[in-house]
Amino acid sequence: MMRLLIFVMFYSSAVVYGQNRISIPSQLAEISGLQKLNKNLFVAHNDSGDGPYLYFLDASGALLKRTFVRGASNIDWEDLAYDGHENLYVGDFGDNGNKRSDLCVYRIPILGSELKDSIVAERLNYIYPDRNSLNPMASELNFDVESMVYIEGSLYLFSKNRTKPFDGMSKVYKGDFIDGGIELTCIQKIKLAGHSWLRSAVTGADYFEGRLFLLTYKKVLEYVWNEDEVVFVKKRSFFRLKQRESICYDRQGFIWIGSEQSILGKQHLKRIKWKLN
Which domains does the chain show, CATH number per domain? Predict the structure, then answer.
């Protein structure tokens, strides 16, 4: 019994060590996208419960500015990607029913436009090359996307699997920019352990210097990124299930996770110390 108790105490400390909970305003009750632009400036957005707005926050969670995105609508915004220099990308690709035909990503020239009242977006449409029907069978419910990263001139989208029975596969689509849109290619599949989409479906993603981070409602997973096949490095699990929807890694060695308000708790950010091996 004593050995078991020691093990539980050690495991518990390993999971929660270095975590900090940060409150965010009620305007971000449905936070589903998060990116860090510089040392003390974050940008976030809500999902389908809001209009086309970007929210700029400092590291304390304080709201600095709400910016209207002209030329865009928010059907179901789900994630942000940043090229590190000029452009921010907003994915309007949430599709719980796997039936949308109006999927797109908005490209927003963010450099020099931070904290302005409004900013103009360019709409980039896309389709899934491997989807044959807008009424898929239960075993094909893997065309919902809630996560996206930018890597060396391309976007990469990760599917949120809802297949019945659940097979745990997240499809990886490479998005190449073409005139007026994005051309997707399914380049690989990542197998996530678990028996339920509620615990093992991808809800957020980020990329930093060769490392890919995937988020689910229950855990964070780190991989060495390779366009042909990712290599698992480690994971961090959470005790409590929450509606964790957004993730970003910063250069100070922290992962930031955004959780929506739900019956599982209020909206907030969680800062976790994360050492790259």
Answer: 23-273 (2.120.10.30)
